[in-house]
Amino acid sequence: MSNPAEFAAWVADVAHRRDRGAFTRLFDHFAPRLNSYLMRLGTDAALAEEIVQDVMSTLWRKAALFDPSKSSLSTWLYRIARNRRIDIAGDFDPDEPMLQPAAAPDLDQLVDIQQREEAVRAVLTSLPPEQLDLVKLAFFEGLSHSQISETTGLPLGTVKSRIRLAFTRLRRMLEAEGVVEAT
Length: 183
Prior knowledge:
Elements: H1 4-17, H2 20-40, H3 45-62, H4 73-89, H5 107-125, H6 129-139, H7 145-152, H8 156-176
Helix pairs in contact: 1-2, 2-3, 2-4, 3-4, 6-8, 7-8
């Protein structure tokens, strides 16, 4: 199994030396994962394959633009794939209720929302760094547990356990502060 440091080295080899071997290793690792991701989003097999080819071609042409300090390689590639799918498929319904603006909340709701957000931010900072990092990858970067495992090099079970522990801790703290009801 490859790790983020290996991926970054391979991307650098592609960017600076046009290393076909490094690109092949990246392609072999990411192409099937991207294809599965696109198909889970409802993309048909032929279009998913076309998008994956486009994403990997982008990696070949624009490897020098990848900045490992901004995101993991998997995050970068999945984002490109998602955006390509949207650009190519254009398969959204503008009348979809989820795409309609929400009704403006009243002042009481705004205050409640703000207080909840502040409470959540406060309790997030109390998490141990090893839990907080995984929660950020899962919920702010949108990575699956498997992708987090690949990105961090941690075993999948460890990723799941740490995220579960983080949520248990967050729930207890938010219940103690009266932000959420006890279950």
